[in-house]
Amino acid sequence: MQRNLKIDFHTHIISEDFLNLAEKYGDDRWPILEKTCDCGANIMIKGKKFREITNQAWDTEERLKDMEKEGIDIQVLSPIPVTFSYWSVPEQGLEMARSQNDFIASIVNEHPTKFIGLGTVPLQDVDLAIKEMERVVKELGLKGIQIGSNVNGKNLDDESLDLFFKAAHERNVPLFVHPWETLGGERMPRHNFMYMVGMPSETALAAGSIIMSGMLDKYPNLKICFAHGGGALPYLLPRMDKGWNVWPQIQKTEKPPSHYAKQLYFDSLVYDERNLQLMIERFGIDQIIAGSDYPFLLREIPSGKVVDQLTNLTDTEKAKIHGLNASSFLSLQVKQYQ
């Protein structure tokens, strides 16, 4: 019996020779990579350590060893979200995006059966973002775009971003939304709450903004996947439905929020089978994609572990979450990866 294809949709990568725009432009807000040893580095912002990373974040051979050990056939590579840098001058943001996109494309080209790439764009300038999205897909051959959950405090349903989503819809470019610059950030430093509370809350706000905006009525074939199981969204959907019903003046959609949640995709990174079961009930089995957040400390090992822990799923349903749903979302020709 052939083993099911396993795709880890949510993984991050950074170049060991990461572009140093802080030095180039004399602006310490840019993230830079400071190696601490061959096995690790710190991402630094404004002279302070933002986070520690291991060489798994850039060493392809280490990554391939982990994939072999954990039974993962394909990783989908995306940038580390702190590098979005939407605050920057758009042309400088484009420089950062192009550097990362070229790097990810080089890794995919080197190992075309093991890696799939998602690019990034300077979303603070929609025209530049659309042009880079086209280059990413047409010239580099990457399969989609990773975007942040807000753009300089603007939610994703802000009118200034509409043309970007329209372009993604018309060009059939999948989008992966990852939290960054989380709401309430000034209250999050203690207990590492940015990662445990801030990111799930931020993701729910981003998803809720798209659901409530009418965007999915206007662009019904738009493909959007949200990280971390949609954050708090599965739990909040009934409250959103209630609000939609009792405040008709806020209604911008034809149907209640829970209807549109079933048009979105979500990774499976929720750690607990009861949480995954709730996601299945709220979104549907076809909308959930296995993803681990490799190579960070909060990652699931292996990707899709919680899927296999949910004993009421059939083999067919598990196969969908482990790989088939990602294949559909990214419009893959699966045979070329087997």
TrEMBL record:
<protein>
    <recommendedName>
        <fullName>2-amino-3-carboxymuconate-6-semialdehyde decarboxylase</fullName>
        <ecNumber>4.1.1.45</ecNumber>
    </recommendedName>
</protein>
<dbReference type="Pfam" id="PF04909">
    <property type="entry name" value="Amidohydro_2"/>
</dbReference>
<comment type="subunit">
    <text>Monomer.</text>
</comment>
<dbReference type="InterPro" id="IPR006680">
    <property type="entry name" value="Amidohydro-rel"/>
</dbReference>
<dbReference type="GO" id="GO:0005829">
    <property type="term" value="C:cytosol"/>
</dbReference>
<comment type="pathway">
    <text>Secondary metabolite metabolism; quinolate metabolism.</text>
</comment>
<keyword id="KW-0862">Zinc</keyword>
<keyword id="KW-0210">Decarboxylase</keyword>
<dbReference type="GO" id="GO:0019748">
    <property type="term" value="P:secondary metabolic process"/>
</dbReference>
<dbReference type="InterPro" id="IPR032465">
    <property type="entry name" value="ACMSD"/>
</dbReference>
<comment type="similarity">
    <text>Belongs to the metallo-dependent hydrolases superfamily. ACMSD family.</text>
</comment>
<keyword id="KW-0479">Metal-binding</keyword>
<keyword id="KW-0456">Lyase</keyword>
<dbReference type="InterPro" id="IPR032466">
    <property type="entry name" value="Metal_Hydrolase"/>
</dbReference>
<dbReference type="GO" id="GO:0046872">
    <property type="term" value="F:metal ion binding"/>
</dbReference>
<dbReference type="GO" id="GO:0001760">
    <property type="term" value="F:aminocarboxymuconate-semialdehyde decarboxylase activity"/>
</dbReference>
<dbReference type="GO" id="GO:0016787">
    <property type="term" value="F:hydrolase activity"/>
</dbReference>
<feature type="domain" description="Amidohydrolase-related">
    <location>
        <begin position="7"/>
        <end position="330"/>
    </location>
</feature>
